[in-house]
Amino acid sequence: MRVIIRFALSMAAVCLVACAGSRGVDKAFTDNKSAVQGNSHTFRAPPELTLRIVTGTLVQKGFAIEQVDSEMGLIKAARNLTDTKDPNTNYHISATAYVSAESDGGGSVVSLAASQQTVLYRKGHTWAMLPLLPIIPIPTGRKYETVVTGEGSILDGTFYGDFFAAVERGLQDASALNATRMAAGVAKPAEAVPATAPAVER
Q1: CA–CA distance, 25 with 194 (Å, rounded to integer)
Q2: Which domains, and CATH codes, for the chain?
Q3: Which end of the chain is more exposed for a tag (fewer CB within 10 A), N or C?
Q4: pLDDT in tens, 121-133
Q5: Which residue has the higher pLDDT, 146 or 8?
Protein backbone atom coordinates (compact mmCIF):
# COMPACT_ATOMS: atom_id res chain seq x y z
CA MET A 1 0.00 0.00 0.00
CA ARG A 2 2.82 2.36 0.88
CA VAL A 3 4.47 1.65 -2.46
CA ILE A 4 1.28 2.59 -4.30
CA ILE A 5 0.95 5.81 -2.31
CA ARG A 6 4.56 6.76 -2.99
CA PHE A 7 4.12 6.03 -6.68
CA ALA A 8 0.95 8.16 -6.83
CA LEU A 9 2.67 11.03 -5.06
CA SER A 10 5.65 10.81 -7.41
CA MET A 11 3.41 10.90 -10.48
CA ALA A 12 1.51 13.88 -9.08
CA ALA A 13 4.78 15.74 -8.47
CA VAL A 14 5.93 15.00 -12.01
CA CYS A 15 2.66 16.29 -13.42
CA LEU A 16 2.89 19.47 -11.36
CA VAL A 17 6.46 20.11 -12.53
CA ALA A 18 5.50 19.47 -16.14
CA CYS A 19 2.52 21.79 -15.94
CA ALA A 20 4.52 24.52 -14.22
CA GLY A 21 7.33 24.21 -16.75
CA SER A 22 5.01 24.60 -19.73
CA ARG A 23 3.20 27.71 -18.52
CA GLY A 24 5.84 30.05 -19.95
CA VAL A 25 5.88 28.60 -23.46
CA ASP A 26 2.43 27.19 -24.11
CA LYS A 27 1.23 30.58 -25.43
CA ALA A 28 4.39 31.60 -27.28
CA PHE A 29 2.53 31.72 -30.60
CA THR A 30 -0.90 32.80 -29.40
CA ASP A 31 -0.38 35.42 -26.68
CA ASN A 32 -0.63 38.85 -28.31
CA LYS A 33 0.50 40.60 -25.13
CA SER A 34 3.97 39.04 -25.36
CA ALA A 35 4.23 39.35 -29.14
CA VAL A 36 6.86 41.63 -30.64
CA GLN A 37 5.30 44.64 -32.35
CA GLY A 38 6.76 46.33 -35.42
CA ASN A 39 9.65 43.93 -35.94
CA SER A 40 9.03 43.52 -39.71
CA HIS A 41 9.46 46.05 -42.48
CA THR A 42 9.19 46.05 -46.28
CA PHE A 43 11.85 47.69 -48.45
CA ARG A 44 11.73 48.46 -52.16
CA ALA A 45 15.03 46.74 -52.85
CA PRO A 46 16.04 43.21 -53.92
CA PRO A 47 16.78 40.73 -51.11
CA GLU A 48 20.46 40.42 -52.07
CA LEU A 49 21.06 44.15 -51.65
CA THR A 50 18.91 44.35 -48.52
CA LEU A 51 20.82 41.48 -46.91
CA ARG A 52 24.10 43.30 -47.52
CA ILE A 53 22.77 46.60 -46.15
CA VAL A 54 21.26 44.91 -43.07
CA THR A 55 24.62 43.27 -42.33
CA GLY A 56 26.45 46.57 -42.77
CA THR A 57 23.95 48.41 -40.58
CA LEU A 58 24.43 45.93 -37.73
CA VAL A 59 28.20 46.33 -37.96
CA GLN A 60 27.91 50.14 -37.97
CA LYS A 61 25.74 49.97 -34.85
CA GLY A 62 28.40 48.02 -32.98
CA PHE A 63 27.11 44.47 -33.42
CA ALA A 64 29.52 41.60 -33.98
CA ILE A 65 28.34 39.39 -36.82
CA GLU A 66 28.27 35.78 -35.67
CA GLN A 67 26.72 34.12 -38.72
CA VAL A 68 25.46 35.02 -42.20
CA ASP A 69 23.54 32.54 -44.34
CA SER A 70 22.94 34.15 -47.73
CA GLU A 71 20.82 31.27 -49.03
CA MET A 72 18.45 31.38 -46.06
CA GLY A 73 18.66 35.15 -45.67
CA LEU A 74 19.61 34.86 -42.00
CA ILE A 75 21.98 37.07 -40.01
CA LYS A 76 22.91 36.51 -36.36
CA ALA A 77 24.66 39.26 -34.42
CA ALA A 78 25.40 40.25 -30.84
CA ARG A 79 26.46 43.36 -28.93
CA ASN A 80 27.56 44.10 -25.36
CA LEU A 81 26.70 47.40 -23.74
CA THR A 82 27.90 48.78 -20.41
CA ASP A 83 25.50 50.74 -18.24
CA THR A 84 26.58 54.39 -18.24
CA LYS A 85 25.64 54.75 -14.56
CA ASP A 86 26.91 51.39 -13.32
CA PRO A 87 30.04 50.00 -15.01
CA ASN A 88 29.47 46.64 -13.31
CA THR A 89 26.18 46.17 -15.17
CA ASN A 90 26.28 45.00 -18.78
CA TYR A 91 23.62 44.31 -21.37
CA HIS A 92 24.09 41.45 -23.82
CA ILE A 93 21.92 41.93 -26.91
CA SER A 94 21.39 39.11 -29.41
CA ALA A 95 19.69 39.82 -32.73
CA THR A 96 18.57 37.62 -35.62
CA ALA A 97 17.50 39.18 -38.93
CA TYR A 98 15.60 37.32 -41.65
CA VAL A 99 15.53 38.80 -45.16
CA SER A 100 13.05 37.38 -47.68
CA ALA A 101 11.56 38.39 -51.01
CA GLU A 102 8.28 40.27 -50.99
CA SER A 103 5.26 38.33 -52.18
CA ASP A 104 4.94 40.34 -55.41
CA GLY A 105 8.66 40.06 -56.08
CA GLY A 106 9.22 43.81 -56.13
CA GLY A 107 11.06 44.20 -52.87
CA SER A 108 12.17 42.49 -49.68
CA VAL A 109 10.88 41.96 -46.16
CA VAL A 110 13.15 42.16 -43.12
CA SER A 111 12.10 40.61 -39.80
CA LEU A 112 14.21 41.21 -36.71
CA ALA A 113 14.07 39.33 -33.40
CA ALA A 114 16.18 40.56 -30.50
CA SER A 115 16.65 39.62 -26.85
CA GLN A 116 18.51 41.25 -23.98
CA GLN A 117 20.29 39.79 -20.99
CA THR A 118 21.26 41.98 -18.04
CA VAL A 119 24.44 40.78 -16.36
CA LEU A 120 25.91 42.05 -13.09
CA TYR A 121 29.62 41.58 -12.45
CA ARG A 122 30.57 41.38 -8.79
CA LYS A 123 34.12 41.67 -7.46
CA GLY A 124 35.17 40.26 -4.12
CA HIS A 125 38.09 38.86 -2.16
CA THR A 126 39.10 35.47 -0.91
CA TRP A 127 40.10 35.45 2.74
CA ALA A 128 42.41 33.35 4.88
CA MET A 129 43.26 33.24 8.56
CA LEU A 130 46.75 33.88 9.88
CA PRO A 131 48.23 30.82 11.59
CA LEU A 132 49.26 32.82 14.64
CA LEU A 133 46.21 35.08 14.70
CA PRO A 134 43.25 32.99 13.48
CA ILE A 135 40.76 35.67 14.42
CA ILE A 136 42.16 38.17 11.91
CA PRO A 137 41.33 37.33 8.26
CA ILE A 138 43.51 38.67 5.49
CA PRO A 139 42.66 38.97 1.77
CA THR A 140 44.55 36.46 -0.35
CA GLY A 141 43.11 37.11 -3.79
CA ARG A 142 40.25 38.35 -5.88
CA LYS A 143 37.16 36.55 -7.06
CA TYR A 144 34.67 37.53 -9.73
CA GLU A 145 31.04 36.51 -9.90
CA THR A 146 28.59 36.90 -12.78
CA VAL A 147 24.90 37.19 -11.97
CA VAL A 148 22.12 37.35 -14.58
CA THR A 149 19.57 39.78 -13.18
CA GLY A 150 17.16 39.81 -16.12
CA GLU A 151 16.59 38.50 -19.62
CA GLY A 152 13.91 38.36 -22.25
CA SER A 153 12.82 39.46 -25.70
CA ILE A 154 13.02 43.12 -26.66
CA LEU A 155 9.42 44.23 -27.18
CA ASP A 156 9.98 47.98 -27.57
CA GLY A 157 8.88 49.05 -31.05
CA THR A 158 11.29 51.99 -30.98
CA PHE A 159 14.25 49.58 -31.02
CA TYR A 160 13.04 48.01 -34.26
CA GLY A 161 11.92 51.32 -35.76
CA ASP A 162 15.37 52.84 -35.29
CA PHE A 163 16.99 49.81 -36.90
CA PHE A 164 14.71 49.85 -39.95
CA ALA A 165 15.24 53.60 -40.35
CA ALA A 166 19.01 53.02 -40.42
CA VAL A 167 18.58 50.26 -43.03
CA GLU A 168 16.43 52.58 -45.14
CA ARG A 169 19.15 55.24 -45.04
CA GLY A 170 21.71 52.63 -46.04
CA LEU A 171 19.61 51.56 -49.01
CA GLN A 172 19.15 55.17 -50.09
CA ASP A 173 22.91 55.79 -49.89
CA ALA A 174 23.58 52.64 -51.92
CA SER A 175 21.01 53.71 -54.53
CA ALA A 176 22.50 57.21 -54.76
CA LEU A 177 26.02 55.80 -55.09
CA ASN A 178 24.90 53.43 -57.83
CA ALA A 179 23.17 56.27 -59.70
CA THR A 180 26.32 58.40 -59.46
CA ARG A 181 28.45 55.61 -60.84
CA MET A 182 26.07 55.01 -63.72
CA ALA A 183 25.94 58.72 -64.53
CA ALA A 184 29.71 58.92 -64.44
CA GLY A 185 29.95 55.96 -66.81
CA VAL A 186 27.52 57.50 -69.30
CA ALA A 187 29.08 60.96 -69.15
CA LYS A 188 32.62 59.69 -69.54
CA PRO A 189 33.86 60.80 -72.97
CA ALA A 190 35.04 58.18 -75.37
CA GLU A 191 38.79 57.99 -75.73
CA ALA A 192 40.06 59.33 -79.04
CA VAL A 193 41.50 56.73 -81.34
CA PRO A 194 44.93 57.90 -82.51
CA ALA A 195 45.17 58.33 -86.26
CA THR A 196 47.63 56.17 -88.09
CA ALA A 197 50.66 58.20 -89.12
CA PRO A 198 51.14 58.29 -92.90
CA ALA A 199 54.02 56.32 -94.28
CA VAL A 200 57.05 58.39 -95.13
CA GLU A 201 58.50 57.76 -98.56
CA ARG A 202 62.23 57.43 -98.71
Answers
A1: 77
A2: 35-120+146-178 (3.30.530.50)
A3: C
A4: 877 767 676 666 6
A5: 146
